[in-house]
Amino acid sequence: MRSEGPIIGIDLGTTNSLVAVSDVGGPRVLPDEHGGRMVPSVVRYDAGRVVVGPRAKAELADYPWTTIASVKRLMGRSAADVRADQPYTAYRVVPGERGTARMAVPGVKGDRLISPEEVSAEILRRLKAIAEANLGVPITRAVVTVPAYFDDAQRQATRTAARLAGLEAVRLVPEPTAAALAYGLGLPKGGNGRVSHVAVYDLGGGTFDISVLRLTPGEGDEPFFFQVLAVGGDTHLGGDDMDHRITEALRGEVARWLGLPEGANELPEATGRQIAAQAEGVKIRLSDAESAAVRIEIGSRLFERVITRAEFEAWVAPLVERTIECCRRAMAGAERALADAPLDAVVLVGGATRMPLVRRRVAEFFGIEPYTALNPDEVVALGAAVQGQILSGARRDALLLDVLPLSLGIETAGGAVAKIIVRNSTVPAQATEMFSTQVDGQTSIRLTVFQGEREMAADCRKLGEFHLRGLPPMPAGVPQVEVKFLVDANGVLNVSAHERRSGRRAALQVVPNHGLTPEEVERIERESLTHAREDMARHRVVDLIANSELDLKWVGEGLARHRAALDPAYAAELDGMLADLRGFVDRARADWRSVEPESFAKAKEALDRASVRLQEVAIAASLRQPPTRGSVIGSG
Ligand code: AMP
Q1: Which DSSP string do the residues of 337-365 spell out, in sequence order?
Q2: pLDDT in tens, 276-323
Q3: Domain map (residue ranges) of the chain
Q4: Within its chain, how far is the Cα of 80 from the centroid?
Q5: Which atom of ligand 1 is nearest to 288's Cα?
Q6: Calpha distance 525→522 (Å, rounded)
Q7: I need a surface site. Which of 51, 145, 229, 563 has the fewest CB within 10 A?
């Protein structure tokens, strides 16, 4: 079987399509020659030529009659079925054989009737070529994903499209099932698989789907079974509608600003286009930032406006509530099948699920923090690739392991890694540590998560980073940052940081084992043994530098402030110790090997002990407290 080449995974989407493969390096999306990972599902029929993907999409407005977008809506449907969709497309749909939907594309010799299968085949052919260019072998087989609600005719049309593109669709997998698979949900882990229930919330550009699945570990040749318990959604609800809400609101404001009597209907066309062109960007920026600026030039005048996330959320909240209503109905539909079993996980799919409001509402409704670690645009293709790898016989084992193969930790000041959960811990696993800051008045802390056995971050594998922002300015060492690592039963790592004094929180989610081969794990272990002694010494010196600098600062400042109240001999003793420790820090900074960690630690302890009296004097003058823990995190 293996000689036939890998079985790729294809997400044949309404708006975008992707191709992925899963091999010893784990599942990954394959890029085109320009590095693009998504192929817009748009096909243009030029005279005698077919243009697929980014260019067809970019030039859609110039060729509205010959460019086919959203063909997925027509697959396996009759012309009558899709009449309701017609207002959304410029191209003409006419009845073909037995009433099936056909597109009438104007050509040199009159209209040409094209079937949805042929259009989809063009997209699939392009994906096949991308896979072949990446993998260097001919590709003949694919797992293709389809919506959970696709009926037989729609599935058959998808198979036909694959055949036309020279691909055997070895399996059609429901999209939510693929998304669950990408997270390793449902795969037997260490032989003790169990039934689990998962909701998949998929909010794309134009459509919303909610599915409730049951995953049962299989026996024999089938590694698992998936059962769709309920589906729901709205075929005309998505991120694009959010863009329209922004456009509408801005049109009204600009019209009022211009003093137009008839309101937004009177806006100059060019102005309307400028507004519409900025809407999606505003929405996307507001997923990360608290506000986004809009600038519209109208003749010689400039309309400027800053939209806050709160305003935007108020505009789109009714749309998000509509998706939650669908979730409520789907959960009710699955009620009997679920009996009293709780949901084990919620998976997010689709670009619009990056919106904080969506994540918040989904978490509230289901009462579970949803899985967001994987790119929501890619998770379906990744899951299809995992299924392809299993079907090719290249993988029978579990994607995720029962024990953590490598330690997980966080970077501390100076570039060392504080291990929070150590390797070989059984999952689920959880651990918490306290950290503080290194710099006075730090209002943001960067937290970088690493995996590996080495002591220095540079020698470990970076899994991701996030920021704890909005801290009130406090002296170094005063903030109390609680960092919690939780690896759940599916191997997904949730890292959260909570500053206790201000109540500020931030979190990150990753799948640590994606893209790691058993060989890599072995190499990382081997290296850690080889470097163990040196690494530990270095970690110690790096921590000593960071903590000594805090001491130098406190004691130095305290001494300056309270010298008059101190016995001169005691002050002189502290001066000497400060100089001694400063010397260690300077030398260690230049070359960590040049200092002897034991003497360095002694110099620090000596100062710590001697400065107790100074602290008492300072506390009497009501000063700050000592740091909460030995480690400080790098500055924001
Ligand atoms: P999809 O159909 O899954 O590719 O999703 C596309 C939709 O996701 C479009 O409406 C995008 O504007 C939207 N989208 C992509 N990135 C973001 C983001 N960071 N925040 C909010 N929406 C996004």
Answers
A1: HHTTPPP-EEEEESGGGGSHHHHHHHHHH
A2: 999 999 999 999 999 999 999 998 999 999 999 999 999 999 999 999
A3: 7-237+319-401, 239-317, 408-515, 531-624
A4: 39
A5: 19
A6: 5
A7: 563
The enclosing H or E element of 249 equals: helix 239-258
Q: How far apart are CA 328 and CA 3, in angstroms?
A: 47
Give the residue numbers annotated as catalytic, written as ranges.
Answer: 11, 72, 175, 202
The finding on whether 388 has its CB within 6 A of some atom of ligand 1 is: no
Torsion (CA) 58, 62, 66, 69 in degrees, nearest 10:
40
Pairing outcome for strands 345-349 and 196-203: parallel
For residue 260, the 8-state DSSP code is -
Angle at 38 between CA 34 and CA 39, to 5 degrees: 85
Residue nearest to atom 19 of ligand 1 (CA): 284
**CA distance linking residue 154 with residue 302, whole number of Å:** 50
Q: How many CB atoms lie within 10 A of CB 93?
A: 21
Query: How far, in Å, CA of 315 to CA of 87, rounded?
Result: 24
Three-state SS at 180 = helix
DSSP state of 410: E
- Rounded CA-CA distance 198/177 in Å is 9
Residue 267: pLDDT band (50, 70, 90) is: confident
Evaluate: CB of 40 within 6 angstroms of ligand 1: no
Fold match between 239-317 and 408-515? no
Q: Is 57 in the pocket of ligand 1 (CB under 6 A)?
A: no
pTM: 0.78
Name the amino acid, one letter, at 592. Answer: W
- Name the helix (H) or strand (E) containing 230: strand 224-234
Q: Quickly list H helices, 49-151.
A: 54-58, 116-135
**Amino acid residing at 21:** V
Which of 283, 316, 380 should be mutated for ligand 1, with most atoms under 8 A from CB? 283
Q: Which CATH class is domain 408-515?
A: mainly beta
70 lines ligand 1 (CB under 6 A): no
What are the helix (H) ranges across 286-354? 309-333, 335-338
CATH number for the region 7-237+319-401 comes to: 3.30.420.40
Q: How far apart are CA 334 and CA 374, in angstroms?
A: 26
* The ligand 1 atom nearest the CA atom of 377: 3
Q: What is the mean pLDDT of the chain?
A: 88
Top CATH class of 531-624 equals mainly alpha
Cα four-point dihedral sign 512, 513, 515, 521: positive
Which atom in ligand 1 lies closest to the alpha carbon of residue 350? 3
pLDDT of residue 324: 98
Q: How far apart, in whole angstroms, are the C-alpha atoms of residue 305 and residue 293?
A: 6
pLDDT in tens, 198-211: 999 999 988 999 99
pLDDT surpassing 70 at residue 115: yes
Q: So what's the pLDDT on residue 630? A: 52
User: Ligand 1: which residue has its CA nearest to atom 18?
Assistant: 284
Return d(Cα 623, Cα 616) in angstroms, integer: 9
How confident is the model at residue 363, as a pLDDT? 97
